[in-house]
Amino acid sequence: MSETQPLLKCRHLWKVYGPDAEKSVPAANGQVDDTEALIAQMRDDDQIVAVGDVSFDVQRGETFVIMGLSGSGKSTVIRCLSRLTEPTAGEVLLDGEDLLTVTPSQLIDIRRHKMGMVFQNFGLLPHMTVLENVAFPLTLQKQPLQAAHERALQMVELVGLKGREEAFPRELSGGQQQRVGIARSLAVDPELWFLDEPFSALDPLIRRQMQDEFMRLQEQLHKTIVFITHDFLEALRVGDRVAIMKEGRFIQVGTPSEIVLKPASDYVRDFVQDVPRIRVVKASDVMLPVGKVDDDCHHVLPDTPLEELLVPLAASAKPVAVRNEGGDVVGLVDSTSIVAGLASLQDDGNG
Amino acid sequence: MAELQSKLQSAIADRIFLIWVAVIAATLVVTAIQPSAAWLIDYPKAWQIPLADVVNIGADWFIDSFKFIFRFLADVLEYPMRALQWVLHALPWAATLALFSAVAYFSSGWRLAAFTAAALFYMALTGYWNESMNTLALVGISVPGAIALGFALGVSGHASPRWRRTLMPILDLMQTVPAFAYLIPILLLFGFGPVVGMIASLIFATPAMVRNVLLGLDTIPETIVEAGRMCGASARQLFWRVKVPSAMHQFLIGVNQTTMAGLSMVIIAAIIGGFDDIGWEVLSQMRKARFGESLMSGLVIAFLAMVMDRISYGFADRSTGVSASHVPWWMQRRYWIGLIAVPAVFIALSFAFEWLASYPKDWIWDPAAWLNQLIKDFTRDYRGLTTSIKNNTLFFFMLPLKIGLQQTISPFSWGFEFTPVLKALYWALLAAVSAYAFVRRNWPIAVCFAIVGIVLFFGLTGLPWPTFIVAVGLIAWIAGGRNLAIFAVLSLLFVLTMGLWKPAMLSLYLVSVAILLCLVIGGTLGILAANNQWASWIIRPINDTLQTMPQFVFLIPILMVFQVGDFTALLAIIAYAIVPITRYTEHGIRQVSHDVVEAGRMMGCTKLQLLFQVQLPMAVPQILLGLNQTVLYGIGMLVIAALVGTTGLGQRIYIALSDADAGRGIVAGLAMALVAMIIDRILQGFSEQRKAALGLS
Ligand SMILES: Nc1ncnc2c1ncn2[C@@H]1O[C@H](COP(=O)(O)OP(=O)(O)OP(=O)(O)O)[C@@H](O)[C@H]1O
Ligand SMILES: [Mg+2]
Predict the structure, then answer these.
(1) N or C, where is chain B less crowded by C-beta within 10 Å?
(2) If you count DSSP H runs as helices and E runs as strands, how many of each does chain A have, helices first?
């Protein structure tokens, strides 16, 4: 497959619970004429539509975040992708191969080599040490114990748990346990990495720390990631693109700033209301057309959050130049433009 | 006055109250016209359904047609048992002792090893070594067999929900029907002899394993299984490398319970398959009223039980695996080396020293005769005291419940005649008390008083069965709704039409008395233990010991002092059944949330107020569960109590067993199971209601 193709394609995915759920979606590939009408009818029939006709692509190296309230169907999506749950209808293409039609033994093979998953409640094996837990997926493939342990040790180091290899899960704190979960999911060097609310069970301070850790890892590893969270700020921090989910449907998919700046509905708007704009809005969103540029003025990249422009602006009276990767100046930001930009967003937010 | 009126009105508006009044009135009427309507109290023989005979006909046919299969199975199973027996006898006693101690050390350290050595040495010292080894051979096959069978059944039940739905009721039945009852068909199918005892033990011990395997597999956190699947585990890897180790702790608890159950069947098995083992020894000595001997041999079983319990529990505890794997591999391997080396050394030594090979006869210490004398002296010297304890309990507590005050009170027992005037006075007093309770509190309390008064007057055996059935149905309705009520009524009708009403009432009376006493004594002990660390520290090991002892062993010392009869049975039942209520009470009170207790303190509760108004009410659901267990334990003891001459369902089963009458045994066993289930479900219902009311469920 070509490199520009998305690694993961999800098409018209459905998961329906309830009586006769298997037959509830007319087409096996999930394509129906009027999705909304079908869902409404299913719900009238007392069926639970956990996921209703969801489609998206995940590009190689991209972090795709699914964000929604509890019960909105996030876990069901990721579980359908990994086939922990059998979808009712739809297609899931990994590198062009339809995961939903592979045989059980092929599926085991795919899980052994291409997928890793991190669980909200860690899912560590209580009777194994940290090292054994991390080596577990490797030993399942009958790799020699020596090699498996070496690889596991690397992973343990990667997540910063060196020295605790011999500890048992119960002897670790929540944050440390999740590090083990992360190390285990990475042990087979998967292309596709699923994380289902990996940090939700941790307290806020640790969560923040783990997010930083996660972003550091991703900078090193460049995995293709599907990340689930119900924490909007977390979604904005870690995600390249974010999907907002509600009652089994994606109601908006976009980059963090798109979502904050152009909420597709009141529902999303409610979410973004409390997000400090200054962290999300980029220099490119508020910059003025290029005027006269002094060579000695401060310059930044277009996707720098406004927050980081405040200090340079305060330090000198000059505007800040926005330069693209090539070094060409594409715009200017001064204090007025920041205030004006934020004010106009405020209007949007309230309107 | 207005308040009374409104109370009356609301009570009359309550359907249940009206039914109660009707039941009470009907009872009084029936007992008043009793001589002319005796059938209302004694169910006529002519109306009985001869189910037992039908069962016998069916059983005879089945046995005749399939006996050969079972006999063959028995023959096959005999080989491993004989082999094990041979090995155990061939091994020098010192080597066996060393081996067990090494296993004990492996399981939980030096203390248990020392205890194990002492326990096994006791067997040699008292001259019961050979009998002990025979018992060990029996359990040595039946328990692993039960574990393997239980594991297979548990796993298959976990894999197939449909199969599980058939399995569960069978397990329920196997655990509530007294083991004696199904000994009979086993006996008929497999014949007599030691193997039969082994098979009985195996069957009896299996359910505990099945339940724990199911529980273990069911309670593995879903994420762990999913993590295993996402790591790419195949179905087999998922089972052996993820599920089994995750559930290992529960499995080992199952092993522990299975071991205990298998061992507790040893004496019972001796009744049918008596051969030269400890169970047979205890039983035959007891029958010969040689108490010293039966106590000495009973202690062997008790020790064996404790050793096995502690060892298997030790393994279960270790399986949670914190400390174990910090031990380097050679340390772990060292255990195995030790397990082989230590006995090997003793075997080698036994060639040099004859006394290590077989325990010398001269060194046997047999205090039985001395014990017998001691008991004789004791009972002679303290006859006054023991008979007065026994008689007072009988006259003032047990007999009123059994045959009612109307028959109990006599110049011989209470020192005066129950004249009509006194009877009238009794009824007047009862009416007054109930009326007072109605006015001051509410109608349920008044109804309770009335019922207790009536039961005490007529005794359980003197109550008319129709109103009794309706009353139980009503209680079941209140506790668990319509289905439970239907179940209770149908079950009682079964008991009635089988002609087992009288025995059932006699059993009920004995159990009720025992349970009341358990509740009072055990409850007090539990409260004590919950509030005082020292008391808890003393009570806990006593409870543990009581729980691990095979039920029979309780009978012996009590029998020595109080002779055959209801009172002895009562004490034996209490000794066995008091454990759960004590434990659950302590646990229930301890787990009352600290905030609540603290809040109570801050409001200025005294210690007693805190106990009665905060801790106990909050602990009621737990206490009810404990009571439930106590009831089941008590009923379980009934058959064994029959050995000391009590009458009732237990006795019926016991008689059927000696007659090898499968039909009558099964019917009586079923009746007992049904009675147990009714009480169980009713108590559970009340526990649930309490929990819901406290917002705990
Ligand atoms: N096995 C099942 N049977 C029936 N309904 C289910 C099942 N699993 C999930 N659901 C329903 O599907 C919906 C989506 O569940 P899902 O677990 O995907 O939510 P979620 O977004 O992950 O929520 P959370 O943040 O609480 O994890 C819920 O309404 C849930 O009740
Ligand atoms: Mg979820």
Answers:
(1) N
(2) 14, 13
